[in-house]
Every structure is written in structure tokens, then in C-alpha cells.
């Protein structure tokens, strides 16, 4: 009889600990659940990142299309940048070098800007002294 009581107590203690563990897991899941605002911020960031990636790709395509001697095009891996401006516009830059029609290498920076309406402005700026 005493042995059965001890076994019964151990079983109850184990069940109690398991229930406590389940409650702790449920509470932790509810506490760590992202709020609606956090979900919206995450979605907005993902959308912004996607738009910036698309703008950078379009900027690179513009560079490839604009270069005269395409075989001499060298796009800088570290000279690429993209960001969302305080004005709500998307910006992307790409530094590159290529030879002109006289065979002289020149360095440029492509500046690509997309406004809120989706209108995109592309321009190439020669980088003097670099």
C-alpha cells in the first residue's frame, strides 16, 4: 500500500510538471507572438527590400545598355549601394569602369532614382580623379 502511494505521488508530480511545462510553452508562444504592427513593419521592409533590389537590377541593366565597349565593362562589387530616402524615393547607385571609343578607361557612377509614383530616373556621372 505504501509503495502504491509513492508511485501514485510520483505519477501526479510528473503529470504536474508536464502540465506546468505546457503552460510555460503556451505563455512563451503568446508573449513572443508578433503584434499586427510588427507584422506590418516586417511586410513593409520586405516590400522595400524587393523594390530596392528591382531598382538595383534595373540600374545594372541600364549600365550594360549604355556602355559602348561592353566587353570592357567592369562593375564594382563594393561600389553598389541602395537605400530608401527620407523623401520616400528609392535610390540605387552602381560604380563601374569601361573603355570609351578611344580605348581609354573611364570610371562612372550610375545613379538611379524611383519616385513614389514609380517614375524612374537614370543618369551616368563620370567620376573624376578616382
Detailed description of the structure:
The protein has two helices and four strands. With 130 residues, the chain is α+β, with helices and mostly antiparallel strands. It folds into two domains: 1-33; 36-126, no CATH class. It has helices spanning 2-32, 36-66; strands spanning 74-84, 90-99, 105-114, 120-126. The model has no long low-confidence stretch (mean pLDDT 92). It has a four-stranded antiparallel β-sheet, with helices on one face. Helix content is 48%, strand content 29%. 11% of the residues are buried.
Major sheet: size, sense and barrel closure?
4 strands, antiparallel
* Percent in strands: 25-35%
Indicate the low-confidence ranges by residue numbers. Answer: none
Major sheet: arrangement of strands: 1-2-3-4
The N- to C-terminal Cα distance equals 92 Å
- Kindly state the percentage of residues in helix: 40-55%
Number of domains: 2
Global outline: elongated
- What is the radius of gyration? 30 Å
The overall pLDDT average reads 92
**Record field, number of beta strands:** 4
In N-to-C order, the SSE pattern is HHEEEE
Structural class: alpha+beta
Task: Provide a count of the helices.
Answer: 2
Tags for this entry?
4-stranded antiparallel beta sheet; transmembrane helix; alpha+beta; single chain; 130 residues; membrane; 4 strands; 2 helices; transmembrane
Question: What's this, in brief?
Answer:
The chain crosses the membrane at residues 12-31. With 130 residues, the chain is an alpha+beta fold.
Amino acid at each position: 500500500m505504501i509503495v502504491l502511494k509513492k508511485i501514485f505521488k510520483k505519477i501526479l508530480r510528473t503529470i504536474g510538471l508536464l502540465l506546468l511545462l505546457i503552460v510555460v510553452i503556451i505563455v512563451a508562444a503568446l508573449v513572443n507572438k508578433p503584434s499586427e504592427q510588427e507584422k506590418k513593419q516586417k511586410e513593409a521592409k520586405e516590400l522595400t527590400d524587393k523594390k530596392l533590389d528591382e531598382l538595383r537590377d534595373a540600374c545594372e541593366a541600364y549600365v550594360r545598355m549604355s556602355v559602348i565597349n561592353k566587353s570592357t565593362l567592369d562593375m564594382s562589387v563594393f561600389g553598389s549601394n541602395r537605400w530608401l530616402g527620407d523623401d520616400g524615393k528609392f535610390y540605387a547607385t552602381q560604380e563601374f569602369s569601361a573603355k570609351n571609343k578611344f580605348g581609354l578607361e573611364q570610371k562612372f557612377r550610375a545613379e538611379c532614382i524611383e519616385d513614389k509614383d514609380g517614375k524612374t530616373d537614370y543618369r551616368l556621372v563620370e567620376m573624376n580623379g578616382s
